[in-house]
Amino acid sequence: MKLTTHLVSAPLHTPFVTALRTATHAESLLVELSDGDQSGWGEAPQVWKVTGDSLAGSQACIEGPIATALEGLGPDDLTEALRRVQGAAVGNFAAKDAVDVALHDLAARRHGQTLHGFLGSSVDVVRTDMTLSVGDPSALAQAARDRVADGFDVLKIKVGTDAAGDIERVKQVRAAVGTGPRLRLDANQGWTRRDAVTVIRALEDAGCAIELVEQPVAAADLDGMAWVTDRVGTPILADESVFGVRDLVNVIRRGAADLVNVKLAKCGGLAPARTLLELARAHGVGAIVGCMMEGHVGVGAAAALVSAYPTTAVNDLDAAWWLREPAVTGGIRYEGSLIHLPSAPGLGVTGLAA
């Protein structure tokens, strides 16, 4: 098998603003894994503020220890290859994710199956929410109306920059879209525990009907997140607090959250993601599958996972929707809140866009 990496920078049609950063491009490292006849694809996004992974670091890891670990294996040695990828280096989750997905993609293609079919599913449509970037109340309200008009009925509002202002922003969004669409919040670690409880309770009292609140406090503050979870009625979703199995076990033991957001670039690919979803299910913890600022390869892999491993709430897979133009040809297609999975083998990606 031959590993090739491709650096890509895809402009967004609208800036993406969170409590942690502002993005105008989706910066990724695409991985192409060839058996000489066919290629499997994977994607390593640059996620400085969450995983610490950079494009340069991912490229060095893939072309160095991961490539070395795969030496001597053939394209049908999937189980052993996946095991070696995870053991090739400490951390470097985006790099592991990219090669893990490429291995799965290539294996699916060699069997003449779609990736979701290879994972055991015939479901070729999954749903996603739509994220509203951080902004002033009027801009957020207008963005919410626009996204509902585009066909999205679950909206995720980025908050966490200003607790007092967050209350007003969310109220205006709810007033703008009415009672139909579901609203969820993502603080991206931006609140203190007391601010989180104050904001969530105020929105509960105002009847804003918030579906869930994602990562209200700092990732390492599981005691703080458990404190919040115990004091509000709205479900709490752990994101940055959970990378792998040990993290999820700690969340479960402390009762720190009601749900977990599983992301391939946080945990290292499809194989560890499946383990996290099964662990959450076994312990009665809800789950969604999310994404970083990824393109059609990364989001396509996550959508294939959702097809085969249904989650307890609508998933957060809108990242590729923000791209002005895809970095690859083929793959998933958006239609309002629906993501259509390809009927072609693997991820359906046929190559880099011109």
N- and C-termini, Cα separation: 25 Å
Q: Based on helices, strands and strand pairing, what is the structural class?
A: alpha/beta
Look up the CATH topology of the largest domain.
Answer: TIM Barrel
Q: Estimate the mean pLDDT confidence.
A: 95
How many individual helices?
Answer: 12
Reconstruct the topology from this structure.
Blueprint: E1 2-17, E2 22-34, E3 39-45, H1 55-70, H2 78-87, H3 93-110, H4 115-118, E4 125-127, E5 130-132, H5 137-149, E6 154-158, H6 163-177, E7 182-186, H7 193-205, E8 210-214, H8 222-231, E9 236-238, H9 245-254, E10 259-263, H10 264-267, H11 270-282, E11 286-290, H12 296-308, E12 328-330, E13 333-335, E14 338-340, E15 349-352
Parallel strand pairs: 5-6, 6-7, 7-8, 8-9, 9-10, 10-11
Antiparallel strand pairs: 1-2, 2-3, 4-14, 12-15, 13-14
Structure notes:
The chain is an alpha/beta fold and 354 residues long. The protein folds into two domains: 2-112, Enolase-like, domain 1; 119-352, Alpha-Beta Barrel (TIM Barrel). It is built from twelve helices and 15 strands. It has helices spanning 55-70, 78-87, 93-110, 115-118, 137-149, 163-177, 193-205, 222-231, 245-254, 264-267, 270-282, 296-308; strands at residues 2-17, 22-34, 39-45, 125-127, 130-132, 154-158, 182-186, 210-214, 236-238, 259-263, 286-290, 328-330, 333-335, 338-340, 349-352. The strands form four sheets. The protein has a seven-stranded parallel sheet with strand order 5-6-7-8-9-10-11. It has a three-stranded antiparallel sheet with strand order 1-2-3. Helix 7 links the parallel strand 7 and strand 8 (210-214). The protein starts with a strand and ends with a strand.
